Amino acid sequence: MSGLPRRVVLIGAAVAPVAACSAANEKHNRAPSAPAAGQVLAPVAEIPVGSGTIVGDTIVTQPATGVFHGFVARCTHAGCVLTEVIDAQIVCPCHGSKFDLDGAVVRGPATQPLVPVEVSVKGTSVVAG
């Protein structure tokens, strides 16, 4: 008979994948950090009209020429990190929620709009604050 009871082996086998998954998704579980006021987020030229760009923990969109919005890059449904802006929509990779470029929910399961981050244009850059 081996030195480990069957129960210990089974518990270890069940816990190991969960621990590995948790470590791999650590960045998804950390709290997003707000950009410092005045921090340059992106050059205006890098934020396409009718689309957006993800910069760290912030999404910057330009729904119309010269109109910029900032949002925390986290889905309001389960807190997943938002990583894509596709066809004028911010898409959650976890459960498929979609938001428009103004942060409003287009498709659930999210029911709340994205959390805004104040942004402004200074010269040729979009900055926090």
Give your account of this protein's structure.
It is a single chain. The protein has 2 helices and 11 strands. With 129 residues, the protein is of the alpha+beta class. The strands form 3 sheets. Strands 2-3-4-9 form a 4-stranded antiparallel beta sheet, with no helix packed on it. It has a 4-stranded antiparallel beta sheet with strand order 5-6-7-8, with no helix packed on it. A 3-stranded antiparallel beta sheet has the order 1-11-10, with no helix packed on it. A hairpin with a 5-residue loop joins β7 and β8 (105-107). The model is unreliable at 18-28 (pLDDT under 50).
In total, how many beta strands? 11
Considering DSSP H and I runs of 4 or more, what fraction of the residues is helical? Answer: 10-25%
Strand order of the largest sheet: 2-3-4-9
How far apart the termini lie comes to: 66 Å
pLDDT < 50 runs, ≥5 residues? 18-28
Average pLDDT taken over every residue: 85
Shape: globular
User: What structural class do you assign from the helix and strand content?
Assistant: alpha+beta
The H/E string reads HHEEEEEEEEEEE
Largest pleated sheet:
4 strands, antiparallel
Number of helices: 2
Task: Determine Rg (CA atoms, Å).
Answer: 20 Å
Strand % is: 25-35%
